[in-house]
Design goal:
Radius of gyration: 33 Å
Strand content: 5-15%
Number of domains: 3
CATH superfamily of the largest domain: Multidrug efflux transporter AcrB transmembrane domain
Number of strands: 11
Largest sheet: 5 strands, antiparallel
Structural class: alpha+beta
Amino acid sequence: MGFYASKVKMSYEFSKAIPTDNAKYLEYVSFKQKFGDDGNMLVTGIQTDSLFTLAYFNAYKELQQQLKKIMHVEDIVSIPSAIKLATDTATGKLAAQKIFRDIIQTQQELDSVTAEFFDLPFYKHRLYAQGPADNPGSRAYLMGVRINKDVLNSKGRTQVINDVINTVKKFEERTGTEVHLSGLPLIRTVVADRIQDEMKYFLFGSLLLSTLILALFFRSFSNTLLSLLVVVMGVVWSVGVLYLCGYQVTLLTALIPCLVVVIGIPNCIYFINKYHTSYIQTGDKQRSLVDMVSKMGVVTLFCNLTAAIGFAVFALTRSAILREFGVVAGISIMIIFVVSFILLPAALSYLPAPKPSQTKYLNNRWITHFLLKTEQWVFHHKKIVYGITAVVLIFAVVGIFKLKSESFIVDDLPKTDKIYTDIKFFEKHFGGVMPLEIVIDTKKPKGIISPKVDIHAIASFQDSFLVNQKNVSKPLSVIDGIKFFYQAASEGTGDSSFTLPAFGNPLYDLHKQLVQLNARRKNNEMTTSDSATAKLMGSFVDSTEQYLRISMSMADIGTQKLPPLLDSIKQKANEVFDTAIYKVQLTGTSITFLEGSRFIVNGLKDSILWAFLLIALCMLYLFKSVRILLCSLIPNVIPLVITAGIMGWAGVPLKPSTVLVFSVALGIAVDITIRFLVNYKQELPAYHYNVPETVSATIKNTGLSIVYTALVLIAGFIIFCASGFGGTKALGWLTSATLLIATLTNLVLLPVLLLLFAPQKKGIKKM
């Protein structure tokens, strides 16, 4: 398994949160087939009043040149490379020319071409944005860096992004200007790499914390080392299983080794604790080992089984990222049971019998005092226990009504993080960086030249409606290309001439241009001007001339505000376009993110219900008593309700990273219940089926292991609070809070319920 674990690879392909047959996903795939990837543009932004001074402009132009030299950078869109259309004196046709020539020697020359650039409305709000009251000193400038989409799905993506960042840093040092970087390639790469690095630290951190707790618990080097050996072996097996299943390490499966640690350590604690307890009673090492295996084997099996169910139910979803996590996590947890069940007794049989110093922890003064206090509450303060439970539940239910379901693409980042502040810069000046695409389907090949297609209706939809939407950038489509061409043909300048022609069919003219371009391409007669024209037209009209594309970027407004915005755009499109002629689709990364977030949250909710049902069936099979089933479920439902209430009061929204808490906590918290109830059931005959005496003995005998196990589990999850990501941090403290509450409900409320539901006379044996 170590050999297989060494062969596992990182996944650099962003896992699909939605199924491949989902309608939104299919629309997005269809869009990429026609127009290419929409998520491979990295943007840089600066805000300065010095850009068009000669020295600064040359430095900015050099930045563009250095970025273009980076391997896998396909193209740069920027002011220094901006083009204009002018009549070629030799051919009499419009040809593309660079506005800013390669060599500009004087400030006067730069001022002249700068004025020419600002006379072209095509670039306004795309490569530059005016500040309040058109104050030139508050202009912001954008440079787009298009990166090869294949490298973004490979190991090389980190190197490309780092090369871009380092090149930008040199420009910052040279000019003293802060450069803002954003775009999906940067966000995805940097965030994914950070999370993967964090998972490594958290794995070692959880192992270190577990080692300290085990050392304090057992006061034995051999027992601590043996427990760690079991856990490390489980981690190696879990990574090996990942490879054997044909999966790669994703942002979610990277959590599995940490989960194996926090679940494997309790197995060791319970097994060794039972061994030591039995040895003190019998003084016989062999008999104690048999007692440990016979009494704790079934208990640990069902504890691990319920924990595995809590994760394995994700495999029932149709989301690939959740399904992979569920399969590997479920198998890994059962493997850690097999490893601990076989390895621990075998190793302990070769070790010397435990010394008094190694069993001293069984009489820990602090925990013994806590358990005695717990016993007093169970037997003498039942009404107060019920009252406190009711009050806390009411408080939690009120909090649940405050709970919202909302997620953002970068909401897990601190508000002071540069990625977050940079994305806000682009949202303020350019509308955002998250791709949003509108595809207008004319329903038949060559449909764009049909007389029924109204170019002015498309222009009105874009320039009168879309351009006025909040949180959206200025739209770009073939309409702008046509305006650009006709402005040049009429030799006009400024906004007044940047319009569609009043007569003729511009789309038919566009069709003729595309035919001519294709003919020249076949004959290898493409000029630089032809390439620029083909690039512009090919980006917004598909090869069949059936589909037109309107491309925008938008702010990261979250899953609550995004649906109303999309609905308003869709509604307006249905008003403007005759559905008999057109079909309008909204797609892009922003929409697939929304659909993916919904799918994951709904999938996790369904998984919790399945986990709850399957765990209930396991416990019913184990205890064969409806009374005990009720007693066991209540103390595990209450912590989940309280956690949901805390999220509501604390303003923590439901999103993929926080919904995961409930399924994880349910699977682990039920372990405590099973261990308590199995011990209770085993002790009943020894106390002649006297329920109060058995409950008292169970609290004393099992309480110690439960407390130490809770400490290990909480320590294993609390370490996630050191994360720089809000979702991981929330997973840490919310899961820890749930486990703490579950420990209290199982040590206090569960015994109270056993006393309440216990038959007092004839049917005692049924418990």
